[in-house]
Specification:
It is built from ten helices and twelve strands. The chain is of the alpha/beta class and 337 residues long. The chain has a single domain, classed as Alpha-Beta Barrel (TIM Barrel), CATH 3.20.20.70. The strands form three sheets. The chain has an eight-stranded parallel sheet, with helices on both faces. Strands 1-12 form a two-stranded parallel sheet. α7 links the parallel β9 and β10.
Length: 337
């Protein structure tokens, strides 16, 4: 016995050992069945299967509007780089590819010509893949270009950002009348509005302006974009968990049947996507929403297709299967091709 002084009453322990022996005592129940109890009727399942969707939608976001080669040298910027990265994601099996385009200076731009240059050959080679992308007009001229793109059905899905918040060093603000008219146009031309939220206030905005007005058609499709500077704080694992659960629960308050996707954003990156998968949600991965592979390291993402394949593998480890483009269409209420 160790020389360490303890406060165990060894006289009592040894006396009990002599009286009852040093062995486990299972009692009269005998072997256990993890799903049944002998004190309950046979049809009572005491550990039923969790209500987790087997199918998971994984979207690959290629380049976004913010990150540059200065933050990640692997970031696709030119139309050819964006096309090649998107094609690799399609070849890897990504059912959804999220597209932005950049101008010659590397800035995000709403240019129908560049969008067609990237997406048209992809649609020809991968006719079933869902293409979505952000159409954010900040002038009347760009608004008209957005309308042309909606009429052309260049995209299948586009986010509606129901927010007024700091995003990094900029202010991202969408007035209510803009949200309402963009949603109306999307639905008129058969493009699915995806409600993009950065904070819990954005969920309330969507509810007040788009849902309570009976404008937005079901099923509602939310994209949670937290963990970016100025958005829902996720500076450590506990904050990440609490924040995501809060956002998810607020969406469920609005509609328990909503389809929810979570972007692997900011420092939370892969941990956030893993948590979303555990909650039974869908995920968006890729270079648009983060430059980091993991929250606790500075390793940069090298390739969008590899990101998709990594999360496909993680989904399979969790017993889930990546949905097909047709299954995603059915999930969010788009007509099948």
């Amino acid at each position: 016995m160790s020389n360490q002084i303890n406060k165990v009453n060894w006289d009592v322990v040894n006396a009990l050992g002599k009286q009852f022996a040093f062995c486990a005592r299972p009692g009269f129940y005998g072997p256990c069945d993890p799903s049944r109890s002998i004190v309950a009727l046979p049809d009572v399942d005491i550990q039923p299967k969790w209500d987790i969707p087997e199918k998971i939608a994984i979207s690959t976001a290629i380049c976004g509007a913010f990150n540059t080669k200065s933050t990640n040298p692997n970031h696709p910027i030119t139309p050819d780089e964006i096309y090649q990265s998107a094609r690799e994601a399609c070849l890897a099996g990504s059912p959804i590819v999220h597209i932005h385009v950049r101008n010659e200076e590397g800035f995000n731009i709403l240019d129908p010509v560049l969008f067609h240059r990237v997406i048209d050959p992809l649609r020809e080679e991968f006719p079933d893949v869902i293409f979505d992308g952000c159409l954010v007009p900040d002038t009347e001229e760009l608004w008209e270009k957005m309308v042309v793109m909606l009429k052309d059905r260049l995209l299948d899905v586009t986010p509606i950002n129901t927010t007024a918040t700091y995003l990094g060093d900029m202010i991202l603000s969408k007035p209510p009348h803009v949200l309402i008219e963009k949603t109306r146009l999307c639905q008129e031309y058969g493009v699915k509005p995806q409600i993009a939220v950065y904070t819990d206030a954005d969920i309330d905005n969507a509810d007040r302006f788009l849902i309570k007005t009976d404008l937005l058609e079901k099923p509602y499709h939310f994209l949670i974009l937290p963990a970016l500077p100025g958005c829902s704080t996720m500076n450590n694992p506990v904050a990440m968990t609490e924040s995501l659960l809060n956002l998810y629960n607020r969406i469920m308050d609005v509609d328990p049947g909503a389809v929810v996707m979570v972007a692997a954003a900011g420092r939370a990156s892969s941990y956030l996507a893993n948590l979303a998968m555990l909650l039974g949600l869908s995920v968006r991965v890729g270079m648009e929403d983060t430059v980091w592979k993991w929250p606790h390291k500075n390793d940069r993402i090298e390739n969008n297709a590899e990101q998709f394949k990594t999360y496909k593998t993680l989904a399979e480890i969790l017993g889930r299967e990546v949905c097909t483009p047709g299954e995603y269409r059915k999930m969010i209420g788009l007509p099948l091709k």
